[in-house]
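2024-03-11 09:14:02 INFO receiving multi-entity request
2024-03-11 09:14:02 INFO entity count = two
2024-03-11 09:14:03 INFO echoing inputs for audit
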Amino acid sequence: QAGLTQPPSVSMGLGQAATLTCAGDSNNVGHEGAAWLQQHQGHPPKLLSHRTNSRPSGISERFSASRSGNTASLTITGLQPEDEAVYYCSAWDRRLHDRLFGGGTKLTVL
Amino acid sequence: QVQLQESGPGLVKPSETLSLTCTVSGGSLSSGAYYWSWIRQHPGKGLEWIGYLYYSGTTYYNPSLESRLTISVDTSKNQLSLILRSVTAADTAVYYCGNGEEGFDYWGQGTLVTVSS
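2024-03-11 09:21:47 INFO inference complete, emitting structure
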């Protein structure tokens, strides 16, 4: 089944950088890129980056998105305790006519 | 800034119809080149896109839900609605409405809907 693949978990130290990945194919990530969202437990998701890799107003420069081929990445620099959350990528699939989400990556800040 | 608030019954019986409303303040459902979205999250699971309504009125639905789904708008009330028919326990989830370039810039707080007899 088509979908976006994210590692279930990533752990990095306080102040370090973490790079989260989102693998798709040429019909979704490779075609238009992926958006990135952050979700803290018990809260709605929050948009961190549009598929164009632009940050919405108010989002810290510590969050930066990029894409290489069919894989999108979100890099978080200077990790803070509040960065502990689940991160989702999302992309439109032009073949399926469906909006896909990755399974989410739980980021732990050690 | 756009604010969204979902509302609807917290409990729906199997085979019945789920109806949810998203009330919009600080913005108009008929202006701006934006998507209005419904997204759900099953308990302890990830996000699932339900569908979009583009500001022009065009709708886009998740293919797996399309046969049971209607998303519409009441511009006089500035409300977005979701109707999901013939629900089962698999439709138990927190339902969110959203808005933005890709339907995600602004989110409501979400409303939990449980399907149970």
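2024-03-11 09:21:48 INFO post-check: The CA atoms of residues 69 and 91 of chain B lie 12 Å apart.
2024-03-11 09:21:48 INFO post-check: The mean pLDDT of chain B is 93.
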